[in-house]
Amino acid sequence: MPSQKIETGHEDTVHDVAMDYYGKRIATASSDHLIKIVGVSNNTSQHLATLTGHQGPVWQVAWAHPKFGSLLASCSYDGRVLIWKEGNQNDWTQAHVFEDHKSSVNSIAWAPHELGAFFGMWFIGWEYICFYRTC
């Protein structure tokens, strides 16, 4: 795919961009507390969804392997990790909310799909990583 400029519609700094497994959608994380899903193909892009649920800047987003369906994880300064699930096309809901932490969750990543629907996260000021199973 040739390079292209994509308008995200965010009103503040974008901290992360993640492309889905098929290269057809991107998710963006921003200081405006929002996650945007944008469809991309050839030289066009189309806003598909805006996900609201964090009460602080969203630092990172990560797509799960498609074998688990359309799942997206997000982490934020608000100390929460949200797992988003797409039901009908572009209809996203919060499937899981992890709020066991009292400080910013700065990074999140899914485990290789062969291990199941696990993800790990890193917290500011913590010296270890937590792992959770989502499905």
Structure characteristics:
135 residues, mainly beta, 4-stranded antiparallel beta sheet, 53% strand, globular
Word description of this protein:
- There is one protein chain.
- This protein is mainly β and 135 residues long.
- Helix content is 0%, strand content 53%.
- It contains no helices and eleven strands.
- The protein has strands spanning 14-19, 25-30, 34-41, 44-52, 58-63, 71-76, 81-86, 92-98, 105-110, 118-123, 129-133.
- The strands form three sheets. The chain has a four-stranded antiparallel sheet, with no helix packed on it.
- Strand 7 and strand 8 (92-98) form a beta hairpin.
- The protein starts with 13 loop residues before the first strand and ends with a strand.
- The relative contact order is 0.16.
- Keywords: Protein transport, Repeat, Transport, WD repeat.
- One of its GO terms (molecular function) is structural molecule activity.
- WD repeats lie at residues 51-85.
- Could you give the count of β-strands? 11
Report the mean per-residue pLDDT as an integer: 85
* Biggest sheet architecture: 4 strands, antiparallel
What is the helical fraction, as a range of percent?
Answer: under 10%
**Rg over alpha carbons:** 14 Å
Helix-strand blueprint:
Blueprint: E1 14-19, E2 25-30, E3 34-41, E4 44-52, E5 58-63, E6 71-76, E7 81-86, E8 92-98, E9 105-110, E10 118-123, E11 129-133
Please outline what is shown here.
Pfam families: WD40 (PF00400). The chain is mostly beta strands and 135 residues long.
